[in-house]
Write a structure and sequence with these properties.
The protein has about 140 residues and is mainly alpha-helical. The chain is about 60% helix and about 5% strand. It has 2 domains: about 5-100, no CATH class; about 100-135, no CATH class. The longest helix has 24 residues, at about 5-25. The chain starts with a helix and ends with a helix.
Length: about 140
């Protein structure tokens, strides 16, 4: 097996593992039914510990919150990881507008769609396109 195939297979396995881990995390009490600030507060110390970035008291608009220490060597990596996790756990545009309560049967159908789309590249875009097409009928 070539190095390319090995690398791509590893990437695909990692993508599936990431998706599975996020699905589990979404059902944890730290995330399920929580807003962005609560989820961020739960994620922050975990990401900080993973990247060995100290947490400090925020200043300015972050006053009253803990933030990553910008002087830490892995600050940028931790910041990007937190942004990605927040986006993937909460949805990319979750800070806009009110949060909708999703009826259980819709949540079940959405989970089935997400699982079906997870095998494809751009799974989120594929699911969104499928929903848009269904509404267009």
């Amino acid at each position: 097996m070539s190095a390319f195939i090995t690398a791509i297979n590893a990437a695909l396995n990692a993508a599936h593992a990431y998706g599975d881990a996020l699905a589990k995390a979404r059902n944890c009490p730290e995330v399920k039914g929580k807003g962005e600030e609560a989820v961020r507060a739960a994620l922050l110390p975990v990401v900080a510990a993973f990247y060995a970035v100290p947490l400090i008291d925020g200043e300015g608009k972050a006053k009253g919150r803990k933030v990553f220490d910008k002087a830490a060597p892995k600050y940028e990596a931790a910041k990007k990881a937190l942004q990605r996790l927040m986006g993937d756990l909460m949805g990319k545009g979750s800070d806009k507008g009110e949060e909708l309560a999703v009826p259980p049967h819709i949540a079940k159908l959405a989970a089935q769609l997400a699982q079906a789309c997870a095998e494809y590249e751009q799974a989120r875009k594929l699911a969104s396109t499928a929903i848009a097409a269904a509404f267009a009928k």
